[in-house]
Design a protein that fits this description.
Elements (H helix, E strand, L loop, with lengths): L1 H20 L3 E2 L2 E5 L2 E5 L4 E10 L4 E2 L2 E5 L2 E5 L4 E10 L4 E2 L2 E5 L2 E5 L4 E9 L5 E2 L2 E5 L2 E5 L4 E9 L5 E2 L2 E3 L4 E5 L4 E6 L4
Parallel strand pairs: 1-5, 2-6, 3-7, 4-8, 5-9, 6-10, 7-11, 8-12, 9-13, 10-14, 11-15, 12-16, 13-17, 14-18, 15-19, 16-20
């Protein structure tokens, strides 16, 4: 009886872990307006995911539309990550439309980091037959050794853009403070 119970628990955990690893968005519409996420304090972390597929990823034949999303973290070692229409872990974005308007992501504090990714495929990337539009996207980090990274419409890790359109009007990325660094990538295959 004990062996059956332990085996059942292991099988259930295996299914749960397998389901957690298998992100896919297919033939789906995701719409979000004025989503807000924030965290403050020591080691604060704010993570906002909208229309995101992770681990063995895919976003295909889908539309992700986000208006006015805000994500922020403040404090010592604060980290703010905002992902919209993002595929990570063997990710692909195929035959899809990713649109973000007035997206705001910020982190402030000692060693603060802010990362904003819109229509970005990571780890064996590929953005194929898709439109990525991010108008008025803003990403900022402030503080000692602050770091700001903004990536719009691109692919990394053997990345490839194929028959894709990337539009990023009025997108801003900034970092301020002693030894601060800012990195902005728009329509880039790495």
């Amino acid at each position: 009886m004990q062996i059956v119970r332990k085996t059942s628990i292991l099988i259930a955990l295996g299914f749960a872990f397998g389901a957690a690893m298998a992100g896919e968005i297919d033939n789906t519409t995701v719409t979000s307006t004025n989503a807000n996420n924030s965290s403050a304090g020591f080691l604060a972390s704010a993570r906002q995911n909208i229309g995101v597929s992770e681990q063995n990823s895919k976003i295909q034949n889908s539309t992700v539309t986000v208006n006015g999303a805000n994500n922020s973290a403040s404090g010592f070692l604060a980290s703010a990550t905002q992902s919209v229409g993002h595929a990570e872990g063997k990710g692909q974005i195929t035959n899809s439309t990713i649109q973000g308007t007035n997206l705001n992501n910020s982190a402030s504090g000692f060693l603060a980091s802010a990362t904003q990714e819109v229509g970005f495929a990571k780890d064996n990337g590929v953005v194929n037959n898709s439109l990525v539009r991010a108008n008025g996207a803003s990403n900022s980090a402030s503080g000692f050794l602050a770091s700001a990274t903004q990536q719009i419409g691109g692919a990394s890790g053997n990345g490839k853009l194929d028959n894709a359109t990337v539009i990023a009007n009025g997108s801003n990325n900034s970092a301020s403070g002693f030894l601060a660094s800012a990195n902005q990538s728009i329509g880039v295959a790495k």
